[in-house]
Amino acid sequence: MNKKAVQAMQEFLEALGVDLKAAGMEKTPERVAGMYEYLFNGINAGTNEVWGELFKVENEGIVAVRDIPFYSMCEHHLVPFFGRVSIAYKPHEGFIAGFSKFTRMVEIISHRPQLQERMTEEVATAVEQGLKADGVLVIVEAQQLCMTMRGDMAHGTKTITSSCRGLFKDDSQSYHQAWSMLGRDNNE
Fold first, then answer.
1. 167 part of a folded domain
2. Distance (Å, rounded) from C-alpha 123 to C-alpha 66?
3. Does residue 73 lie in a domain region?
4. Which residues are 130's β-sheet partners?
5. At 114, phi and psi to the nearest 5?
């Protein structure tokens, strides 16, 4: 356990007037520090080693991995945002990665103080560089609790961000096929 984080959380809660001697609150600084240690375990972790061995296949088509669940912490207010990441990529010379590698990569990137827009770009970069993919399309759909817990309290509002790279950016037919595979209308 990070003693500095525990101490800081104790001081923070006390500064807000929270009674840490009340029943059930005695261990709250330790629990919160441990939780944030887990939520931010992607800060110093890279994604390159996630991919492991790539596999050669004869299929020349696009590969899609849809609806990878994630949660992250908004760097502006340190409250959660959560949703799903969908990825389409065109393998370079037929080299693909195991599907579980995508969920691990998304977990690493989302376990940092984040902005949804940056996270979308970081996922696209990880796929593009890690797989040397000829094309990448990433769509992130999320609910931002900073929008629903404060301010306008826009309950149910979702934000959608995308990043398009390589072949999908340059070739309209491939672009539309990738969007379609990710369950999106070709006109979006």
1. yes
2. 13
3. yes
4. none
5. -140, 165
Distance CA 17, CA 52 (A): 49
Count of domains for the chain:
2
Name the percent of the chain in helix, strand, coil, to the closest 5. 40, 25, 35
**Contacts for 153 with CB less than 8 Å, ≥ 6 apart:** 147
Structure tokens at 119: 């996270």
Residue ranges making up the domain that contains 28 = 3-39
Residues 130 and 156 in one domain: yes
pTM, whole model, 2 decimals? Answer: 0.92
Model pLDDT for residues 137-188, shown as the tens digit of each residue: 999 999 988 888 876 777 888 999 999 999 999 999 999 999 999 987 644 4
Please report, in angstroms and rounded to a whole number, the separation of the first and last CA atoms in the chain. Answer: 46
Cα–Cα distance measured from residue 127 to residue 105, given in angstroms and rounded to the nearest whole number: 9
Residue 30 sits in the same domain as residue 96: no
Separation of alpha carbons 159 and 58, rounded Å: 37
